[in-house]
Amino acid sequence: MIYIQSFTFNDFQENTYILFDETKEAIIIDAGCFYENEKHELSDFIVSKKLKPVKLINTHCHIDHVLGNEYCAKKYDLKLYLHKDELKTYSDAEKWTAMFGIPPLTQPQIIEFIDENSIVNFGNSELSILSTPGHSVASISFYNKAQNFVIAGDVLFRQSIGRTDLPGGNFDVLISSIKNKIFTLPDETIVYSGHGIETTVGYEKTHNPFLQ
After folding, report:
1. Are 81 and 57 spatial neighbours (Cβ–Cβ below 8 Å)?
2. CA distances (Å), 139 to each of 40, 152, 191, 208, in order?
3. What is the pLDDT of residues 110-140, one digit of tens each?
4. Are 158 and 203 in contact (CB under 8 A)?
5. Of the CATH numbers 3.60.15.10, 3.40.50.1010, 3.40.190.10, 3.40.50.300, which one belongs to the domain with range 3-211?
């Protein structure tokens, strides 16, 4: 069984997720821990549950979702997994840190590319990957059919959607990703978003004003 722990980090109030199972192997998705207390919160949880992080993954590479990558990669000796078409966004981190007055970042350079044909394995568990661009050029979402949940990054929020005015954003592409990928999942599927509280596919089909 997969257990999901969420943390809300940095000034952008970004959601970072740790997923783990009975083997204690864990993956970290969208490491946003930036301040020292946030890094301690993440690592203290890992210690308290006696977890062994084995993968560091990005749904996409906007600045709020990568602020903790270097910390996690170094502390747990992890390779970073992302879609290859996110590399441009990833390499623009310096521009975005300057824009928001954030000290320059050192980003992990050991990277493995994943896409819709990949499977994310950890412990006794696995996640399939959905290609869900539109908020960013190549955002991906992570789905577990057995437990009916999807980690969707900034694609879909409770009664809202990801913004499309950032580099790589495209409103029509985003709506298509939601309707043709996320909304094909069962209505009871829990959607864990990159900001805010979780929702379900069925709730968004009925209540999301962008998708009626």
Report:
1. yes
2. 28, 9, 15, 20
3. 999 999 999 999 999 999 999 999 999 999 9
4. yes
5. 3.60.15.10
